[in-house]
Amino acid sequence: MEEIVIPQRKPRQFIGEEFLLTSWEEVQPLYENLVNRPINNVQDLRQWFIDRSELESYLSENMAWRYIKMTCDTASEEKQKNYHFFVEQILPNSSAFDDQLNKKALESPYLSELQDKGFDISVRGMKKAVEIFREENIPLATQVQTKQTEYQVITGGMTVNINGEEITLQKAGDYLLSPDRAVREEAWTKISERRYQEHEKLDNLFNELRDMRHQMGINAGFANYRDYMFAAMGRFDYTPQDCFNFHEAVAETVVPLVNKMAKERKEKLKVDELRPWDLKVDTDGKPALKPFASGEDLLDKTVQCFTSIDARLANYMRIMRTMGHFDVESRVGKAPGGYNYPLEEIGVPFIFMNATSNLRDVVTMVHEGGHAIHSFETRDLPINAFRNTPSEVAELASMSMELISMEHWNAYFDNEEDLKRAKVDHLEDILEVLPWIATIDKFQHWIYENPTHSIEERQEAWLKIFELFSDSVTSWKGFERFKKYVWQRQLHVFELPFYYIEYGMAQLGAISVWRNYKQDTKEGLAGYLNALKLGYTAPIGKIYEAANIKFDFSKEYIAELMAFVEGELEKLK
Questions:
Q1: Are 138 and 89 in contact (CB under 8 A)?
Q2: 166: part of which helix (H) or strand (E)?
Q3: Tens of pLDDT, residues 291-334
Q4: d(CA 550, CA 531)
C-alpha cells in the first residue's frame, strides 16, 4: 500500500495567502490588476495566464464548497443563502471581467509566441466566448442559476411511506428489486405518485427556465438556445446533425436489442404483461444483490477494487477519504443524484451520492471514482483551462472506469454467481441507457427548437420521442399520466441543459476502452490514463486517440460495439 500523502495546494502568489472572499469588493481589485497589467513579452503573458488561473481556481473552489454543502443539506436556508450569494454577487461581476480578460489575451501581440501545449485549445475557446458574450445575458444567467436550485429543493424533499417508514425515493427504489411483485408495484406506484404531486410545479419551473434560456440565445444572435449552447459548451468537434445521426443509429442498432431483452424478461418472469415495476427485478426470482452494507463498507470495497486495477488509483480514493471528501449515503433532505466536484485549488475532488446498498450504487461510485482519477491525473497541469475538460472527455473517464472496474468487482461480491449477475445487470443497463440518452437529447433539441410550446405540446412531443426509443413490450396501461412526466426525473433537463448526449458518446468510447483492457490490461489501462493526463490540451478526437479508441458515433461503429457487448453478455449467461 502506498503511503497516504495529503496533497498541498500551490501557494497563492497572486491573490495572497490571506485572501478571504466575503464580498465582491475584495475580488474586484484582482480582476482590475489583470485587466490593466502591462504585458511586454511572452513571459509576461504566460505569467498573466498563471495569475488568472490562480484567481479563477480560488473562486471555483469557493463556489464548489458552497454547492456541496447546499446539496448535502437542502433544508438549510443558511447553506442556500451562502450558495446564492456567490451566484448573485460574484458570478455576474466576474463574468463581465472574463470577457475583458479574454479580449486582452486575444489582442496581445505575444499570443502567437505561446507554444506551450494546450494554449491553442484555450485560445479557440476564448475566441468563441468573446464572440457569444452579451452583457445583457449576465443577469439572465444569474436568474437561471438561482432558479435551477428550486429543482433540488423540490426533489430533495421527496419521501414516501413504505412499511410505516418515511424514506427517500432512492431508498424506495430498492423495493423495485424485490422478488415479490406486489411489493414492487406498491413501491413504483408510490414513487410515481410522489413525483406526480409536483408535476405542475416542475412544469411551471421549467417554463420559466426555458423562456430565460431562449432569451439568452436570442440576445447572443442565435436562432435558439440550442445553437447558443453548442457554442457556449465549445462543441467544436461535432454538430446538431451528428446528434441526430446518433439518435437514428441508436434507434436502429440498440433499440432492437432492448426489445429482445424485454421479451426475454417477460417470458422469464412468466407475466401476462411486463409492467414498469418489473424492469429491475432479477428474472430468476433471486433477491436483490447487496454489494455492501454501509457507506463505509462501500468505500472500503471500492479501495480494494481500485487496488486490483492499480495501487496509485486506490491511493487517490484513500486521500479523498482521509480528507473527508465523500458524502455517500442517502438521507432525507439531501439533494438527489451523484457527482464528482473538482476542487480547483487543492486538486482533490469531492464525491457526493445517495447510496442505499444496491448495485447501482457501486456503478455510481466507480463512475464518480473515474472522474476523481481524472482530477488527480490533471491536477499538475499549469492552468485551470487545461484541467477543465469537455464533457465528452470527462464522461469517458468515468464510464470507462465503470467497465474497467467491473473486471475486479469480486471486491463487492463473494461468490461467482452474484458476480456474474452483477456484470450481466450492468451490461444490460448500458444497452438500456443508450436509448435513454438519445431520448433526453432528442427531447431537448425539440424543446429549444420550439421555444413557445405549450405544456400539452411538450407532453405530446415527449411521448412521441419516448416511444421511439422504448421497448414495445412494457405496458403503462392505467399509468399514462406518469408516463407523460418521466422526463422530470432527469435533473440535466432542469440544471444542465444539453449536457447529456456526452454520456452516449463517452459510453461508446468506454466500451472501446474496456475492449482494449480485456485484450491487454496493462496497455488498456495505460491508454486510458494517457487520455486522462491530457486534460483539455488537445481536441476531443486526439484525446480519444491517446486511449487507442475512436471518437465516432456512426451507425457502423455503434453496431460493432453493440455486437461486442452482446458477445460478452452471452459468455456470462
A1: no
A2: strand 165-168
A3: 999 999 999 999 999 999 999 999 999 999 999 999 999 998 89
A4: 12
Under a CB-based contact definition with an 8 Å cutoff, are residues 384 and 44 in contact? no
Q: What is the DSSP string of 98-162?
A: HHHHHHHHHH-TTGGG--STTHHHHHHHHHHHHHH--TTHHHHHHHHHHHHHHHHHHHHT-EEEE
Run of H or E residues at 329: strand 326-329
Mention every residue, 6+ apart, whose C-beta is less than 8 A from residue 283: 264, 265, 268, 269
pLDDT digit string (tens) for 118-160? 999 999 999 999 999 999 999 999 999 999 989 988 998 899 9
Q: Summarize pLDDT for 558-568 with one digit per residue, the tens.
A: 999 999 999 99
Render the burial of 501-526: b for 16+ CB within 10 Å, e for the rest.
Answer: bbbbbbbbbbbbbbbbbeeeeeebbb
Cβ(543)–Cβ(393) below 8 Å = yes
| Number of C-beta neighbours around residue 327 at 10 A | 20
Sort strands 165-168 and 326-329 into parallel, antiparallel or unpaired.
unpaired
Closest CA to 361 of 421, 434, 295: 295
DSSP H or E segment with residue 498 = none
Residues pairing with 166 in the sheet: 161
φ and ψ of 160, to 5 deg = -135, 160
Q: How many CB atoms lie within 10 A of CB 473?
A: 17
CA gyration radius, the chain: 24
Task: Report the distance separating Cα 207 and Cα 200, nearest Å.
Answer: 11
Element (H, E) at 283: none
Q: Residue 536 is inside which H or E element, if any?
A: none
Strands 339-341 and 350-355: antiparallel
> How many Å apart are CA 393 and CA 371, to the nearest integer?
10
For 72, the enclosing helix (H) or strand (E) is helix 42-72
Task: Calculate the CA dihedral of residues 139, 144, 146, 150 and round it to 10 degrees.
Answer: 160
